[in-house]
């Protein structure tokens, strides 16, 4: 899997509800639920229900730092 494939896949899902699970240090998981907002060259953003915007890097998907469920 490479970044180009990830970008192409996510570009078809803009506006959809998305769940991002971030795997942090010490086996800590943080779950974000929101709408896939925008795609940029190195990052993508999601808008949470609270109105907050979170950004994630495509490389985080490859390194399995985050997981995405659509």
List the helices and strands and how they pair.
Blueprint: H1 3-11, E1 17-23, E2 29-39, E3 43-48, E4 53-57, H2 58-62, E5 66-69
Antiparallel strand pairs: 1-2, 1-5, 2-3, 3-4
List keywords for this structure.
alpha+beta; 20% helix; 70 residues
Q: Could you characterize the architecture of this molecule?
A:
The chain is of the alpha+beta class. It is built from two helices and five strands. A five-stranded antiparallel β-sheet has the order 4-3-2-1-5. The chain starts with a helix and ends with a strand.
Which quaternary structure do these chains form? single chain
The number of helices is: 2
The helix-strand sequence is HEEEEHE
Q: What's the shape?
A: globular
β-strand percent reads over 45%
Q: What is the residue-averaged pLDDT? A: 95
Poorly predicted regions are none
What would you report as the Rg, rounded to the nearest angstrom?
Answer: 11 Å
Structural category is: alpha+beta
Number of strands: 5
Compact description:
With 70 residues, the protein is of the alpha+beta class. Helices cover 20% and strands 47% of the residues. The longest helix has 9 residues, at 3-11.
């Amino acid at each position: 899997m490479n970044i180009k494939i990830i970008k192409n896949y996510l570009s078809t899902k803009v506006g959809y509800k998305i769940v991002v699970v971030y795997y942090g240090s010490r086996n800590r998981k943080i779950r974000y639920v929101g709408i896939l907002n925008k795609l940029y060259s190195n990052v993508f953003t999601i808008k949470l229900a609270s109105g907050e915007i979170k950004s994630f890097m495509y490389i985080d998907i490859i390194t399995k730092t985050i997981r995405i469920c659509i």
